[in-house]
Amino acid sequence: MSDDSSNGQTKNSWLERLSQAFSSEPRTPEDLLRLLRDAEFQQLIDSDAMSIIEGAMQVTDMRVEEIMIPRSRMVTVKAEADPSSYINEIIESAHSRFPAIGDTSDEIIGILLAKDLLPLALRNNLTRDSIRDILRPATVVPESKRCNQLLKEFKENRNHMAIVVDEYGGVSGLITIEDVLEQIVGDIEDEHDVDDDDRIREREHGIYAVKAQTPIEDFNEFFGTGLDEEAFDTIGGLMLREFGRLPRRGETTTFDRFRFKVLNADNRKIRLIQVKPIA
């Protein structure tokens, strides 16, 4: 009997704390976040769950162009080329999907799935015509599309990749479902990820996306800077010093000839930073 009573009191206490945490109705996303952080402080929500909630809320404000893989880093195949000319690149890249292009990167013929090559290879039928027959239709989205809307479409259409175009219809990059999910749950690493090569990406000419855990030493080597490598281990740690607190998404700071903008952060850490040289 005493055990049941104790469990009942614990349950009531938990419900009372939850009710108190949400007793004042939130009117803005910031109000909601404050309530959720208070619930986390009261241990009603664990830190991992809070991080995912914040990531999901941030995604609603993010546009595709903010997280896409830029055109310069796209691994493509030429639809009219002999497969022998690009099969090694497919193997080495370890990607699962490849845009198939025409004469230029702006002419997207379709999407080639690496798994579709296996039956052709087993039948010794890797030809230009057979490759064209297995191309999947390409999904095209504008740079301005909201990431949460794209994630919903990915789920509904069972699609994992979209080609991103600018206002003039030119290809500016591509985006995958993994790119969007990483904004919610953090980096999704697999056996093919190479951290050192992926920490700094050029999103467009002169503008870079840098992971916050990038070592200061690597940052200095890449940008030719002389940031203090003794005081902090990572560029994220240096950002924390500059702000004097944990910054939120969209906040900027300037030092050492660069403007730093927080692209992704939660209530515990900075995840992704935009770095742009100051003219």
N to C succession of SSEs: HHHHEEHEEHHEHEEHHEEHHEEE
> What proportion of the residues form beta strands (DSSP E)?
15-25%
Low-confidence segments, given as residue ranges, are 190-196
The Rg value, from CA coordinates, equals 23 Å
SSE class: alpha+beta
Largest sheet: 5 strands, antiparallel
Task: Summarize model confidence as the mean pLDDT.
Answer: 81
Number of helices, counting only DSSP H or I runs of 4 residues or more: 12
Terminal CA distance: 74 Å
**Strands in their spatial order, largest beta sheet:** 8-9-12-11-10
Using DSSP, what is the number of strands? 12
Helix content: 25-40%
Shape: globular
Structure, briefly:
Helices cover 40% and strands 21% of the residues. It is built from 12 helices and 12 strands.
What does this 3D model show about the protein?
This protein is α+β, with helices and mostly antiparallel strands and 279 residues long. The protein contains twelve helices and twelve strands. It has a five-stranded antiparallel beta sheet with strand order 8-9-12-11-10. The chain has a four-stranded mixed beta sheet with strand order 1-7-6-5. A hairpin with a 5-residue loop joins strand 6 (161-165) and strand 7. It starts with a helix and ends with a strand.
Structure keywords:
5-stranded antiparallel beta sheet; 279 residues; alpha+beta
Helices and strands, with pairings:
Blueprint: H1 2-21, H2 29-41, H3 47-59, H4 64-67, E1 69-70, E2 77-78, H5 87-93, E3 97-101, E4 108-113, H6 117-122, H7 128-134, E5 140-142, H8 147-157, E6 161-165, E7 171-176, H9 177-185, H10 195-198, E8 200-204, E9 207-211, H11 216-223, H12 235-243, E10 252-255, E11 258-265, E12 270-277
Parallel strand pairs: 2-3, 5-6
Antiparallel strand pairs: 1-7, 3-4, 6-7, 8-9, 9-12, 10-11, 11-12
